[in-house]
Design a protein that fits this description.
transcription, about 35% helix, DNA-binding, about 325 residues, DNA-binding transcription factor activity, transcription regulation, D-Maltodextrin-Binding Protein, domain 2, HTH-type transcriptional regulator BenM, elongated
Length: about 325
């Protein structure tokens, strides 16, 4: 089955017009029509309903279009990655979640560029969930995120766990304490900001007698509260961590953030440790299984070196 025929069908199906597809492919309409007819003869199925205007796909054509779309995107990505192997890029595209940028990421990038003076680094703010697609599409070379993924094509390394701290308005009575138990925050409004949730449990609430079970709660902060049997009575959800901290600064509630953010808005916010050692947020480094960017190993060694300098407990990849 010729790639040219698949491309012709895909373009016509996507644009729903032979004339527009002819402009895009720079082929004549008769040539496009012939290629698609040859494709239909190859598989013995009619893909386009030629008796309707505007152009429509048959049911089989719709199914085939969806499959061909995935194949062509995968092929395009493979070609791009193959070209990178032959001609290693001098740019490292890094995807990151905002909370990581407040930690050691700037130092990591600076040290990596010192080791590789000709390397340019481009940063892209992108959620943990979307980093997998961005890696496959070649939009980023590595990603720093907070959530694990289950994808065979992605290499994911757990770098370390970062403790959560409570972010409280300056006037909050608990600022007088140095350490806080989550049960002490139950009566406060908790501001939630995670867009990615933990994997859903296989057990539905109707099948479980304990509706507060952590296994049934995917929102990361609520999951921590549920583990201590201390679900808050009031919550507010916002789109990102900066808005959450803005609301805390305005006295509209409290939230939990990774320790690296405790230098943000310190004029209005007090940060306090939690007594729970397991109240942590993981940091993952993600890349494609094969190939990886030529700078990947250097980046990883820089990360480990900084952790060792600062006495940070981490997990070294095998």
């Amino acid at each position: 089955m010729q790639l040219k025929r698949l491309t012709a069908f895909h373009t016509v199906a996507e644009l729903k017009s032979f004339s527009e597809a002819a402009l895009v492919t720079q082929l004549s309409q008769p040539t496009l029509s012939r290629l698609i007819k040859q494709l239909e003869d190859d598989i013995g199925v009619e893909l386009i309903d030629r008796y309707h205007r505007p152009l429509q796909l048959t049911a089989a054509g719709l199914f085939f279009y969806d499959k061909v779309d995935s194949i062509l995107k995968e092929l395009e990505s493979s070609i791009s990655l193959t070209q990178k192997i032959a001609h290693p890029p001098d740019t490292l595209n890094i995807g990151f979640v905002p909370s990581v940028l407040y930690g050691l990421l700037p130092t990591i990038i600076s040290r990596t560029k010192q080791r590789l003076p000709n390397l340019a680094v481009h940063l892209k703010d992108i959620s943990s969930f979307k980093q997998v697609g961005a890696l496959k599409a070649g939009e980023i070379d590595v990603g720093f995120g907070r959530f694990s993924h289950d994808d065979a094509s992605i290499k994911q390394l757990l770098l370390r766990h970062e403790r959560y701290v409570a972010a409280l308005p300056k006037a909050h009575p608990l600022t007088e304490q140095q350490e806080i138990h989550l049960s002490q925050l139950q009566d406060s409004r908790i501001i939630l900001y995670h867009q990615t949730h933990l994997p859903a449990a296989h057990l539905s609430a109707s099948q479980h007698s304990d509706y507060d079970s952590p296994a049934l709660i995917g929102e990361p902060l609520l999951h921590l509260f549920a583990k201590q049997s201390a679900l808050p009575h009031q919550t507010t959800s916002v789109s990102d961590i900066q808005i959450a901290l803005g609301l805390v600064a305005a006295g509209e509630g409290i939230t939990l953030v990774p320790d690296s953010l405790k230098s943000v808005r310190t004029e209005q916010i007090s940060y306090r440790k939690l007594v729970h050692e397991d109240a942590t947020s993981p940091i993952y480094l993600c890349a494609l299984q094969n190939p990886t960017h030529p700078a990947f190993d250097t980046l990883l060694e820089v990360i480990y070196g900084i952790y060792e300098e600062r006495g940070i407990t981490y997990r070294r990849a095998q």
